[in-house]
């Protein structure tokens, strides 16, 4: 429950749990009703929503809400007082400034964020990624500061800080951090890429350092001489030596040996033969000089390889699992797949822009319920050329691989002059994955079988790791290759949900950057088959796109996109209805959407921070500005992302979490519009919860439910998930201790202990037997009528989740 001071009084908002839902009405779901209390006095009974405005509220008033089932209060919230400024500031501890090996100073700002209940107490903790001011895109040269990942309680208590170390570069594409309860014990773990030098610092209750330790290097790496003192960042001189050594080994490269690549570097560069192979050091240096000073600049004036520094293209790479509460390392394994090389095989030297360390270091991560019951962590590497995904289950002790997907290398005739994008990989099943991945990734049950698939941009991986489809379309007139079937290809924005409620299943809306080499600049597709439902060719990089219910008089969600001037349609893509009608040339924003308004429509977050700050706002396409978040900022340059948009408090609407401009705190805003709609917390929808964990990945995209959510929704169509809440048994035990005492309490507690032991053995049937015995024993002496009703309700809810 949350209370917020508003102009009209004190606004209260609380959750409806999925386990409390019993049916649906025209305006919302039905189930538990709620008594609202201020300072111990009942103010109201709320039946049609989970919010209330107290016109007489004060800053000192203490509020509680009780869930009511069949006239009996079965649960009571903890007391809260109002956020007196209309928002809450979660204090943060900014890391110290730093200086790079090149002597460049940098500072830190709070960046992406995620949430998880790390200690099992039923409330979220907040995980913040810190960005140095010199963070880089993978295509940008230069050193960066370290990335830090902090975990805070809501009062600002810093539990631990994980320093990824100097061997993980800072930038949107490098670090994707998953926060989720992967093993179902009620406590969230954290999982992300690490390297030698990754260090965990724990803090005590006074904010002082309690302990520091590095992750555990694999035994074979320690024996090979790797250590946490290693520094794999390349200086310009290091890169020159690296190229010389690469050239000296040219004659042994497998692609050269099998005849796929030119036998000599002179042939690759288009110059006359001059050297014997294997190359002597001085000959390799002469070719490196030619490559850097003549050949590379001839390909593009932007190729200044003499200035190449700050990249990490060597050294061990790991995937680590951390305890969310303590930061303790639980397991570290090798990152799969490894980089293999500096990007040569990935096509980083093949195009006119020569960009070592680019395509090889494109990472994605998300959570997916591949078996329909247990969450898996999915990590991806590469998407322009070779494309890989690997899925893991965490069982509390070990990571176990579900499946591995690899397109294989995209064949090239000359790694220094070729067009590797859009070329099938060598794997017979997954070869068409190349160039289909996006700067985001999603999990959704696209085929309705109860198990989530991984939506990988313009392709989708089935729950078993097989390729469900890879979307192609015919190239139109005016494109680079009219009449040819071509990949829809890579893009920057992707949205997966039920966009058109008049069609069965889910849809995917994407924008594409292939310009004249892509058949479509934007497209709405059937999520189950990949079939294009509508879309259009633009001929330019269509960089931004969004969906939402911004026209409530039109059925379904609207879609829109924008692109720079010079496209096929100079007026822009425009605003489209779910059934494929263009209704407006003007479009809402594309940075981030948010469910803020009381009427179930969609709003947009505006405000990018580049050289200057733009104050974030929440905009409604019809009503204008609904919130101005003074004193705060967004992240990720022109993309203008909040640190997080998610339903972390109160009713079904989403909160806006954005850092103060000095990053001293994370400011939390919640909507105070009174709504008459009743819906369970979005975090109980499996797709939405997984999407919140994914939201921080690369180019942040909104989180979507697995059902149609809009102003014209039919609440009778909202699926009610079967939830297993790991803390439910402990909560029942707490209810018992609060409501019953003496011999009756001891007798009933013994039955709950028996149920707990059965669950620990994985014997759900015996656990249910013990809980049913518990319910029967409530009829014995020593239990009041009110306690019997409340405890029966909670026990029955627990039994339902186990069956």
UniProtKB/TrEMBL annotation:
Keywords: Lyase. SUPFAM superfamilies: Integrin alpha N-terminal domain. Residues 1-83 form the Rhamnogalacturonan I lyase beta-sheet domain. InterPro entries: FIMAH_dom, Ig-like_fold, Integrin_alpha_N, RGI_lyase, RGL11, RGL11_C. Pfam families: FIMAH (PF22888), RGI_lyase (PF18370), RGL11_C (PF21348). The keyword Isomerase does not apply. One of its GO terms (molecular function) is lyase activity. Residues 738-800 form the FIMAH domain. Residues 87-208, 304-715 form the Rhamnogalacturonan lyase family 11 C-terminal domain. Transmembrane segments: none annotated. Gene3D superfamilies: Immunoglobulins. GO terms for biological process: carbohydrate metabolic process. The keyword Repeat does not apply. This is Rhamnogalacturonan lyase. It comes from Streptomyces radicis. The lineage of its organism: Bacteria, Bacillati, Actinomycetota, Actinomycetes, Kitasatosporales.
């Amino acid at each position: 429950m949350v209370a917020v001071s508003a102009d009209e009084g004190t606004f209260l908002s609380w959750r409806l749990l999925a386990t409390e839902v019993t049916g649906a009405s025209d305006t919302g779901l039905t189930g538990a009703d709620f008594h609202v209390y201020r300072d111990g006095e009942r103010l109201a009974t709320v039946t049609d929503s989970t919010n209330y405005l107290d016109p007489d509220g004060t800053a000192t008033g203490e509020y509680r809400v009780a869930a009511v089932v069949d006239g009996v209060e079965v649960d009571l919230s903890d007391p809260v007082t109002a956020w007196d400024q209309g928002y809450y500031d979660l204090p943060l501890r900014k890391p110290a400034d730093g200086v790079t090996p090149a002597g460049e100073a940098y500072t830190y700002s709070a960046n992406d964020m995620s949430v998880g209940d790390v200690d099992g107490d039923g409330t979220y903790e907040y995980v913040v990624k810190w960005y140095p001011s010199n963070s880089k895109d993978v295509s940008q040269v230069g050193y960066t500061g370290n990335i830090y990942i902090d975990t805070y309680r809501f009062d600002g208590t810093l539990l631990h800080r994980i320093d990824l170390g100097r061997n993980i570069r800072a930038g949107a594409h490098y670090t994707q951090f998953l926060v989720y309860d992967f093993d179902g014990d009620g406590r969230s773990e954290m999982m992300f890429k690490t390297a030698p030098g990754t260090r965990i610092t724990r803090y005590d209750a006074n904010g002082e350092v309690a302990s520091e330790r590095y992750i555990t290097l694999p035994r074979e790496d320690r024996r090979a001489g790797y250590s946490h003192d290693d520094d794999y960042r390349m200086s310009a001189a290091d890169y020159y030596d690296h190229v010389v050594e690469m050239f000296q080994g040219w004659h042994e490269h497998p692609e050269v040996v099998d005849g796929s690549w030119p036998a000599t570097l002179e042939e690759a560069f288009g110059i006359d033969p001059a050297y014997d192979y294997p190359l002597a050091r001085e000959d390799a240096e002469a070719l490196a000089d030619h490559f850097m000073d003549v050949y590379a600049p001839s390909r593009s004036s932007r190729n200044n390889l003499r200035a190449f520094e700050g990249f990490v293209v060597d050294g061990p790479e790991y995937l680590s699992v951390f305890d969310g509460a303590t930061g303790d390392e639980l397991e570290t394994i090798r990152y799969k797949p490894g980089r293999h090389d500096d990007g040569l095989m990935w096509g980083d030297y093949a195009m006119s822009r020569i960009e070592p360390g680019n395509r090889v270091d494109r990472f994605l991560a998300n959570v997916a319920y591949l078996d329909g019951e247990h969450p898996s962590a999915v990590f991806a590497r590469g998407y322009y050329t070779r494309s890989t995904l690997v899925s893991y289950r965490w069982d509390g002790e070990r990571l176990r691989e579900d499946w591995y997907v690899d397109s294989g290398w995209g064949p090239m005739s000359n790694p220094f002059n070729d067009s590797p994008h859009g070329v099938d990989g060598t794997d017979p099943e997954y070869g068409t994955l190349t160039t289909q991945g996006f700067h985001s990734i999603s999990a959704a049950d696209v085929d309705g079988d109860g198990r989530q698939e991984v939506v990988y941009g313009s392709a989708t991986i089935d729950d078993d790791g097989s390729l469900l489809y890879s979307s192609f379309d015919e190239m139109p007139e005016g494109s680079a290759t009219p009449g040819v079937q071509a990949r829809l290809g890579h893009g920057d924005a992707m949205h997966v949900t039920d966009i058109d409620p008049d069609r069965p299943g889910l849809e995917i809306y994407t924008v594409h950057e292939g310009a004249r080499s892509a058949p479509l600049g934007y497209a709405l597709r059937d999520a189950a088959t990949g079939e294009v439902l509508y879309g259009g060719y633009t001929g330019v990089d269509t960089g931004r796109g969004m969906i939402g219910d911004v026209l409530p008089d039109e059925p379904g969600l609207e879609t829109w996109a924008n692109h720079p001037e010079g496209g096929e349609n100079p007026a822009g893509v425009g605003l489209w209805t779910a059934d494929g009608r263009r209704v407006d040339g003007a479009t809402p924003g594309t940075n981030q959407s948010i469910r803020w308004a009381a009427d179930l429509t969609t709003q947009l977050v505006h405000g990018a921070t580049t050289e200057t700050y733009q104050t974030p706002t929440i905009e409604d396409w019809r009503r204008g500005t609904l919130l101005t978040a003074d004193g705060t900022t967004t992240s990720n340059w022109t993309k203008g992302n909040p640190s997080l948009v998610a339903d972390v408090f109160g009713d079904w609407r989403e909160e806006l979490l954005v850092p103060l401009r000095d990053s001293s705190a994370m400011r939390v805003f919640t909507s105070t519009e009174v709504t008459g709609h009743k819906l369970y917390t979005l975090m109980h929808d499996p797709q939405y919860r997984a999407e919140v964990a994914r939201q921080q990945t690369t180019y942040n995209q909104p989180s979507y439910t697995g059902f149609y959510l809009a102003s014209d929704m039919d609440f009778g169509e909202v699926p009610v998930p079967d939830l297993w809440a790991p803390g439910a048994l402990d909560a029942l035990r707490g209810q018992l201790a609060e409501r019953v005492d003496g011999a009756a309490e001891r007798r009933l507690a013994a039955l709950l202990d028996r149920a707990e032991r059965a669950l620990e053995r994985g014997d759900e049937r015996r656990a249910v037997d013990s809980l049913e015995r518990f319910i029967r024993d409530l009829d014995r002496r020593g239990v009041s009528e009110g306690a019997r009703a409340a405890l029966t309700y909670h026990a029955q809810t627990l039994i339902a989740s186990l069956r």
